[in-house]
């Protein structure tokens, strides 16, 4: 119930205006979002690389309201690849299709994604298309498959809480598509998504066991020790080397676990978001783990 409430709150523009105007909240958000500018994201990426982790950079933002906004976002992403290459960072880029115009003009969105993927390819880099709520699932898959069909270095994200995900994963693997597997961070009805955490966990493990032996390099995105243990156990049983997949985690969450996996020889990619549009992302992070919410409340009321 609390998770659903926080996700619902993440969509409130009135609450966003109130929360983003308060100092304690901005300071708390800095734990998950290193700053508003690309420079802030690059500073965090350099430090994460220094520790030994890989990086995925994400300029926060969703549902642009006009074509110019979509083009500005696309230009920003192409500039990110220039900076990643110039600074020799071990980093790729994640983006949302609604940020480059999916709701405005599907053709424009696909054209912009092709341009971004081409820029990534010029540096032998990679674009990860994030998955949004279920109204975007099929459209996102369709765009990614078309762009990948042209030889683009692009992959996407699959959410274990959706019933449809197993078939989607099988179709994407057949197309050679790299996948980030996560549990899912949006509020979805029981008609299309597993309502119980135990069922989501079971499906996550089932999907992981489809991904790892596929011969395609995938990302297992989770902070759940049980999911991580299941992945490690299965990879060992199947003789799947630690260089054949990676774990993925969010900036500022379970850094102890990130270090532990690195010390065990696993690849760990840290997802580093930046940008002024941090409120929806921040609220979804609070919804995911009660410990995040308690940390936030203590930071507010201790001042």
List the helices and strands and how they pair.
Blueprint: H1 2-9, H2 13-19, H3 23-29, H4 38-51, E1 54-59, H5 67-86, E2 91-95, H6 106-122, E3 127-129, H7 137-149, E4 154-159, H8 165-174, E5 179-182, H9 197-211, E6 218-221, H10 225-238, E7 245-250, H11 255-263, E8 268-274, H12 279-288, H13 290-301
Parallel strand pairs: 1-2, 1-8, 2-3, 3-4, 4-5, 5-6, 6-7, 7-8
Helix pairs in contact: 1-12, 5-6, 9-10, 12-13
Description:
This protein has an eight-stranded parallel beta barrel, surrounded by seven helices. The chain has 303 residues and is of the alpha/beta class. It is built from 13 helices and eight strands. α5 runs parallel beside α6. The protein has one domain: TIM Barrel (Alpha-Beta Barrel). The longest helix has 20 residues, at 67-86.
